[in-house]
């Protein structure tokens, strides 16, 4: 069964059936990466273009490797995104790239809505690799996959998402996926970094870390962009770490089987202490492994779909 | 070509004279020379316009137009903007000073007026800057601006943040009895926001502009209006909080007037769902609660003016990621039908709508226009209230096409526009744009 859609833009747009299909396919691709010859011919002759307007090593590498494992040709393009330095519009850039007969365009941009804008005008399949504070669907999917793998079922799990929810596309994708599967989601962070009306998404909001963590099955710690401090969202990194940093004392409040997740890269000692990042509860490296499998599944299923 | 025009059998609506009747109207030598139920054919050659089934109203006045001249002629020219104005039924536009250079001195005002005289199809009344370069630091030479022809001052687009400077500007403006028009926005609260802060900004992951960015400044300006006794006009009001503050200020007898724009009573931030940069403007489209309050403010007279905030931007500027696309939409060619819709939805009477587009704005700038009196300059708009038409970018006269209303079906449109007693030829043919 292929995915009957051209693009992957947000978790919101995917049904549970589609997500199940993606995660099942990803499971089967995990095995490929453990082989001696880590390659299958599924996407031979296809061209994937990683169009990254925002610097990113890990997501780009993950998409690149996913494409290569499926035998596609992968090209990485890093483009300047600031309107001050660029001299053509985003649509011109994308149309020029598509003129090279790409099959997939994986796009990351600091402005929300860019993948949607491109998907509307391009024939290629567009995969959103993160747009502004809007969505990061492959991250949302790999987080669901990791939780499902470790916990079996998502329904009823108590999930706490900690940090800068306001600027986080990871939080938005995670919340949409987790709520779809019936998890009980609580977001916690300073109120200056909680977006207005997020309760409407079916989540609880807490301002107090210790209160939120009690009995948590999953803790997703978001990366704190250090420049938020200079914009006045909180007084100092020290105080942020004091109020919302995850340390061992706080972790003890959660369920003993709790899993700690982080989309990386980690600011050790700020949002997450090293002992936890490297500890037994951490599934951060499983997330990375699953990310590769999920991205292989997305390429494969979209490619299958386009042939029908 | 005769200089006599007899407009026969139209429904003449002139809110300034509380007139609403079917009558004839005669124009001679550029001025209105007669209005009565039946005017006999004048002597000599004359032109007759059959206005049966049409509304005959004072030429519409837009208090808030960005002509983009000088400096941004790639967005709009005086020729294109005034063609758009005429096409939309406007015979007078007041142009905002955020040009390059800023209209903060006599030379720029004169340049605008010279170009308007040369290529403009409708009257242009410049608005001068409040501060030099609209930098918010030193007052512009207001006496010079007024003598050159400015009818108001405003730092629209670059609002005066320093409240003491605003106080001084208001106090100083009382010498000339001109209104100080403020674009109410606390730039610090807006920060890097691009759309209204609320459920849509959260869903779309876009940085929000809180409604308090507007209301904080509305409250400030009301306090300063009371302190200084100046005439203060609040531009493009968009939020419920502002409407409430203005309503209370008027009850207290403070000399404050207010305008809103058709987009604020027609659209909400839901229009941003598709990341449409043609729905991005300042102030941003707000919530449905705010839209309801704007409608209530129009209905009870808290808001006395409907203005367009016509803000042309080139397609290559608007076809960008939403974060980068400039704020602003065009409005001259859609304002009239969107306003007439308020009659259909029972918000305003027909006469009230016409008032907010004619004598309302005329009163704010203290000009003897927007009315149909004997001896008045013949600026007249004939409206076909029933014609249905579709907004098409290719039909628009504005050089820029940044409108969220493209593709909409509208009801009602200007069918003939008369400026200083001259029928604008070539713009219209039997109610249809040629
Ligand atoms: Zn403005």
Helix tally of chain B?
A: 14
Q: What Rg of chain B do the Cα atoms give?
A: 21 Å
By helix and strand content of chain A, what is the structural category?
alpha/beta
Q: Mean of the pLDDT scores of chain A?
A: 93
What pair of chains forms the biggest interface?
Answer: A-B, 27 and 20 residues
Q: Give a quick account of the main beta sheet of chain A: strands, pairing sense, barrel closure.
A: 5 strands, parallel
SSE series of chain A: HEHEHEHEHEHEEHEHHEHH
Oligomer: heterodimer
Strand content of chain B: 15-25%
Model description:
The complex is a heterodimer of chains A (308) and B (434). Chain A is an alpha/beta fold. Chain A has eleven helices and nine strands. Chain A has helices spanning 16-30, 58-69, 90-98, 114-121, 137-151, 169-180, 209-213, 237-244, 248-251, 274-277, 284-306, and strands at 47-52, 73-78, 104-109, 125-131, 158-162, 184-188, 204-206, 218-221, 259-261. In chain A, the strands form two sheets. In chain A, strands 7-6-5-8-9 form a five-stranded parallel β-sheet. A four-stranded parallel β-sheet of chain A has the order 2-1-3-4, sandwiched between helices. In chain A, helix 1 crosses helix 5 and helix 5 (137-151) crosses helix 11. Chain A is globular and about 55 Å long. The model of chain A has no long low-confidence stretch (mean pLDDT 93). In chain B, the strands form four sheets. In chain B, strands 1, 2, 3, 4, 5, 16, 17 and 18 form an eight-stranded mixed β-sheet that branches. Chain B is globular. In chain B, 29% of the residues lie in helices and 23% in strands. The structure holds zinc ion. Zinc ion (ZN) binds at residues 156-157, 183, 235-236 of chain B. Residues 156-157, 183, 235-236 of chain B line the site of zinc ion.
